[in-house]
Amino acid sequence: MQGRIAACFLLTGLLLVCGITAARSVDAEVQRIRKQLKTLPMNQPVKLSEEDWRKLLTPAQFLVLRQRATEPPFTNEYANEHQSGIYLCAACGNELFASKTKFESGTGWPSFYAPLAPDKIALAADRTTGFSRQEVLCARCWSHLGHVFNDGPPPTHLRYCLNSVSLKLKKSKE
Fold this sequence. Notes:
With 174 residues, the protein is α+β, with helices and mostly antiparallel strands. The chain has 2 domains: 1-39; 50-171, Metal Binding Protein, Guanine Nucleotide Exchange Factor, Chain A (Beta Complex). Helix content is 30%, strand content 23%. The strands form 2 sheets. Strands 3-4-8-7-6-5 form a 6-stranded antiparallel β-sheet. The chain starts with a helix and ends with a strand.
């Protein structure tokens, strides 16, 4: 009986050590990927495998940014955010939108009337819902951000309707 108990403790200890080692290995891999992203100049395209993106992003981020899902309205982080700053791509850190172009659209998602610069984003035709619309992508890593519509306020009359999970707010000191 004591031999079985000792064997169980030994096996449990081995499984624990293997689990910790595997977790450290995954953490080291994520750190390697993050370091690779940070050393890449911002004007360089980001090319990671889907497996690397899966390691780097949260499950919710991966669904939206890489698999083009949409988060539910009125339940996201930035729809009602009013702090000054720059909104970055949550995947690669590309600076995308300024808070000064953010407006209340009533849609339940953060909305902007213009990107920081035209070359920060890319647009692609999206017909997945049965009607034509424009998908908004990060021009650096080609991650899905949301969609753009022509019902926004002046001066552009555009509404970049984005998923909060695809963004990260870099708050300004103002």
